[in-house]
Amino acid sequence: MPSQFFATHVKNLCLSVSVEPEDATSILRVCRGVKDLAFWVDHLANPGARSHSLPLIAALNLHRLSIEITYYMDLIRNYSGQQAWMERLTHLDVIFGTHDPEDGQEGSLQTVVPHLDQLPRLTHLGLRPSWTRPPVAKAGLRAMLEAASPLVVLVIYDESGIGHERVSSVDPRVVYIPYPPNAILEWEGQAHGDELCVWTKAEGLVRRHAAEQPRGV
Q1: I need a surface site. Which of 99, 113, 118, 119 has the fewest CB within 10 A?
Q2: Could you tell me the CATH number of the domain that includes residue 168?
Q3: Residue 158 forms beta bridges with which residues?
Q4: Are 124 and 92 in contact (CB under 8 A)?
Q5: Torsion 94-100-104-109 (CA) sign
Q6: What is the pLDDT of residues 121-166, one digit of tens each?
């Protein structure tokens, strides 16, 4: 099948941890029309391959992106001049893994997700803290909400064990939702606009919370 077929027809793409870095690069080279990308590839075993994948991601006209914080920071630092991946991005899902920068460094959970002001159309932001990380501080939440002025909802995948969806008292746009049992199935649901996906659930929580508030509050 010619590569132009993939460039024209593949709009949603999930590259999970089971995809080898070299294969991820080859796939991104032909799938140039992707608008919704989950990039969960593990480059620790082959760090050199990472430098080949990121410029290909930066060249995509993305609307949705799920990516680890270290890769997001590399995109911001090295490819902010390439506007394709930044200008139309509405949904950003950021994964904080065990190899994140140390606390106090740019990109750590203390500063959470920086440079959101460079994503002018961002309306949905998701944070997936690792099990070893502390809860997101209120100051960090407020900083992100201020930086991303169009933000409609900020989802934090809750690892506290409470196990139910809730709206934060910090800001009604901040929603805590339990981790999905299957990340790939969850991603597929949001890619197809499933009404039970995390984004849709979060939007519904925000609307219900607003409707329950007394008028004038």
Answers
A1: 99
A2: 3.80.10
A3: 178
A4: yes
A5: positive
A6: 999 999 988 765 666 788 889 999 999 999 999 999 886 656 688 8
